[in-house]
Amino acid sequence: MAIQIKNxxxxxxxxxxxxxxxxxxxxxxxxxxxxxxxxxHTGSGKSTLIQTxxxxxxxxxxxxxxxxxxxxxxxxxxKRIKELRKHISIVFQFPEYQLFEETVEKDVAFGLKNxxxxxxEAIEKAHEALAKVxxxxxxxxxxxxxxxxxxxxxxxxxxxxxIDPEVLILDEPTAGLDPVGSKIILDLIFELxxxxxxxxxxxxxxxxxxxxxxxxxxxxDGAIAFEGKPSRLFSDDVSNYSIEIPQLFKFCKxxxxxxxxxxxxxxxxxxxxVDQLRSRHG
Amino acid sequence: xxxxxxxxxxxxxxxxxxxxxxxxxxxEEGEYVSIVGHNGCGKSTLCKLIIGLLVKDSGDIFVxxxxxxxxxxxxxRKKVAIVFQNPDNQFIGATVEDDIAFSLENDNVPRDQMVSxxxxxxxxxxxxxxxxxxxxxxxxxxKQRVAIADSxxRHPDVLILDEATSMLDPSGKExxxxxxxxxxxxxxxxxxxxxxxxxxxAYGSDRIVLLHEGEIVLSCLPSELFNNTEIINKxxxxxxxxxxxxxxxxxxxxxxxxxxxxxxxxxxIWQSK
Lengths: 282, 273
Fold this sequence. Notes:
The complex is a heterodimer of chains A (282) and B (273).
Chain A: E1 3-12, E2 20-30, E3 35-39, H1 46-53, E4 61-66, E5 69-71, H2 81-87, E6 88-91, H3 104-114, H4 119-132, H5 149-161, E7 167-171, H6 179-194, E8 198-202, H7 206-212, E9 215-220, E10 223-228, H8 230-235, H9 247-257, H10 270-281
Parallel strand pairs in A: 3-8, 3-9, 6-7, 7-8
Antiparallel strand pairs in A: 1-2, 1-4, 4-5, 9-10
Helix pairs in contact in A: 3-4, 3-5, 4-5
Chain B: E1 2-12, E2 18-28, E3 32-36, H1 43-50, E4 58-63, E5 66-67, H2 73-79, E6 80-83, H3 96-106, H4 111-124, H5 140-152, E7 158-162, H6 170-186, E8 191-195, H7 199-203, E9 207-212, E10 215-220, H8 222-226, H9 229-234, H10 241-251, H11 262-271
Helix pairs in contact in B: 3-4, 3-5, 5-6
């Protein structure tokens, strides 16, 4: 597995009257080279969890292990955090708000320079990353501020891709985009995963979970409420977690309840269902 | 009777980029129209022009036959209510009851009437148990329901929803969908204009207007739009699940004529061999 989380707890404002335990004794594994979705309603602890994964906040107790990195509650011992962030990177919600440079290529190259790359190397890698997100050279010298919302978001994602992390965490990557913009981002994520990146996706959109995720984790009140395949989650009673079962999945269940044989674990898109129905017809 | 009539409406930004290029639209009393289109197509601008938050370059807007101009602006704003996208940007009162009362205060409604009206409309949107709650204790869907109560309490003829569900989670969206249906049952004369990216919601409306680069390219029944593959592909629109399913069943060789719900299509499949 890529990341192993053991007995992780996190308390905000500890030892004050306002302390809140956001994560309580969470243990889980993030599988390597897969797309893992993290779902749960607002305030469930999703954001706290992803922030602990690359050391933005230090756990109150418990450990996070990734390769030979270990994050513990002893902040002073977590010396290799900067190096860890090269391997595990986060794209925050609305990342386009963090664009700041004069030109698109400079913005993408910024992170690389922080990791000691020389200017020309950084720009070269920035160009490669921009190509991956479908931003061509006509954009290189433009100000990031004159781009459309969807383009800005792709440039912001390129800034993280340029560092070439093994694990990419994206918080609500399609929020606020129209259907066309969303599809471009989702296709990109799918492509990155096919080329070997481990993806962690925080989302409210269960269609994305069904279509794209291999593994899903539900967080509820700071604890793991479910961990497993999307098809198993949607078969469970999800009424407490603000999860809307995708229509495609409901339809498959409806067919199953009338003795139509369906291999529900293999259904991600409507075309998968069509294929199974077709073979049923012989 | 025509509820909203728009003739040859144009609007440009200060730098003279055109946003609306001669829009003609007429909405009947009691009609529920969805306006769809990609970001930047001019949907929100159109709404803001109807309630006079922006001033048109040229063209005419009529609400219940009354022309939108300086003299009629206040009268028209009494007839038209709008609910915006962000639930946090439109909660004015300190509590739910204050918030609903705010619009009544502006209309000089006497206190005893106000008290009963606040209760009545909070009940209509299912928020009667939250009257003394502050916005911080409400979910996004609950705040939007309060915003709808704020609008309804003034008895508008036209309710505009400007992406009112787009920032809500699935259960919040569902709350608002149910409320829209309930409002229409209780007041069949209420005209609703909903700007939305939510294809499932649009599918449930009486008519869909597709706006593209400041022009109306199509205005028709939702089923007509979603069965028009050419338009769907050209404008890159998503399709409601039931429409997609029907199309796929047809490709599989089923006779899908007169099968219009997910249940009907399901039955057709499990009854076949």
